[in-house]
TrEMBL record:
It comes from the Bacteria. Residues 2-227 form the ABC transporter domain. Keywords: ATP-binding, Nucleotide-binding, Transport. GO terms for molecular function: ATP binding; ATP hydrolysis activity. It comes from Cellulomonas aerilata. This is ABC transporter ATP-binding protein. InterPro entries: AAA+_ATPase, ABC_transporter-like_ATP-bd, ABC_transporter-like_CS, P-loop_NTPase.
Amino acid sequence: MIEVRGLTKRYGNALAVDDLSFAVEPGKVTGFLGPNGAGKSTTMRLVLGLDRPTSGEALVDGQPFASLRDPLRRVGALLDAGLVHPGRSGRAHLQVAARTAGLPRRRVDEVIDLAGLGGAAGRRVKGYSLGMRQRLGIAAALLGNPSVLIFDEPINGLDLDGVRWLRGLLRQLADEGRTVLLSSHLLAEMQQTADRLVVIGRGRLIADATTDEVLQGMGGPRARLRTPEPDRMLAELTRRGLTARAHGDEIEVEGASAEQVSVVAHEVGVPLHHLSDGTHDLEQAYLELTERHVDHRSGPQPSAPTTPKEER
Ligand SMILES: Nc1ncnc2c1ncn2[C@@H]1O[C@H](COP(=O)(O)OP(=O)(O)OP(=O)(O)O)[C@@H](O)[C@H]1O
């Protein structure tokens, strides 16, 4: 369990984290979202005792990180996958980390397997792709078999296989009852991976709810349908005050559920070939949530979800 209470961090005149309070519960994957400069990394560093708060507190299992006994067995973190001695092999890096933390040697091979490093574990880290470095960082975070895991942008640099693997690993860690917090700007990925979302902007809390609640909170129900009489259906929906648009051979309806749309179709005798409840695009929800909380916006925002970079 991670608890952040009234957490504030000031760097000179800049307020990086501003009276932030939220809790990250065990057994769930919690996504930590926010625009660039929102304060996500600073918050994670404060939770990990790598920086001191100006005021407020960040607790892990009820204690500040600095007071934890055996912290590496309690908390595992991936902050910057670049911070590894380039001349060492992945295995050697993990062996040094295990020895320093007083962890058994066999644990190194276990986390190499868990992180899917395989044969790459014997190669020097300087030859690793960003995706392999991320896997190594995740392996290191898992070394102490901790109950709390904190990953800063773990998806960066992973190829599609890597993203799928990470999604499965995060789910497994949460299902084992661990507390899992990950930051990412890959919103479409969060939509699939996170059970809950903590969204911040300019250091302040914007949303703290289940992923479904964040999505549903943006504009109410939606439905999608296909019909051989699209013009008539569009007219009927619009006449009832609903926003309905054609996308190819599909019609998207805002403000009504699939059930409500089926009643309309039945009333006017329009046949439906497909009808489902629509989901909100997290990208859109996120942009709307954070719109008022961004310091700088550079040019038009992309409307398509960001896709992960290919592993080099
Ligand atoms: N050591 C520091 N000294 C001064 N300012 C800092 C320091 N660390 C962070 N900041 C500032 O605090 C704010 C929050 O930064 P932070 O890196 O926590 O945001 P973030 O949400 O992780 O952003 P990103 O997604 O870009 O990594 C930014 O304005 C940043 O410039």
